[in-house]
Amino acid sequence: MFTDSGLNNTYFKLRLTEEKEKSRLLEIKIEELDTDKRRAEIKSLNEEKERVFDSIKQARIDLADTQNENNKLLQEINIRKAAIDAEDGIRKNEKARTVKERSTKNIKIQGDV
Predict the structure, then answer these.
(1) Following DSSP, what letter does each residue of 39-76 receive, concatenated?
(2) What is the Cα–Cα distance from 61 to 51, expressed in whole angstroms?
(3) Residue 113 DSSP one-character state
(4) What is the largest CA-CA distance in the chain?
(5) Alpha carbon 84 to chain centroid, angstroms
């Protein structure tokens, strides 16, 4: 027959086994939660990474657009500068021709005297 102490011993062993099993199940749940939490964090970080990559792509596009616009402006400036230089050259040539014509007239006038 079982004695009270034997029953108590068996009861406590069973209880200890149950508590160990509960503890093990809780550890599994914690690991699952940790894993889920890590997955959520990883997902969040990946989403943030995608936003950063999209931002980088947009910045590159904006930079290229700005460079294209700057190149167009530079071309326009160079065209205007070339036109101004050409007009300057024409004026200088006209002035030189006028000076030459005057000096030629002066020489003719002095030669006629």
Answers:
(1) HHHHHHHHHHHHHHHHHHHHHHHHHHHHHHHHHHHHHH
(2) 15
(3) -
(4) 164
(5) 40
Checking phi first, is residue 3 left (phi over 0); if not, alpha (psi -120 to 50) or beta?
beta
- Match 């160079």 to its residue by tokens: 78
105: Cα within 13 Å, side-chain hemisphere: 6
pLDDT in tens, the chain (113 residues): 455 666 778 888 898 999 999 999 999 998 998 898 889 999 999 999 999 999 999 999 999 999 999 999 999 999 999 999 999 999 988 888 887 777 777 666 666 55
Q: What letter represents residue 20's amino acid?
A: K
* Among 88, 66, 85, residue whose Cα is nearest residue 74: 66
Q: What residue spans define the domains of the chain?
A: 1-113
pTM of the model: 0.50
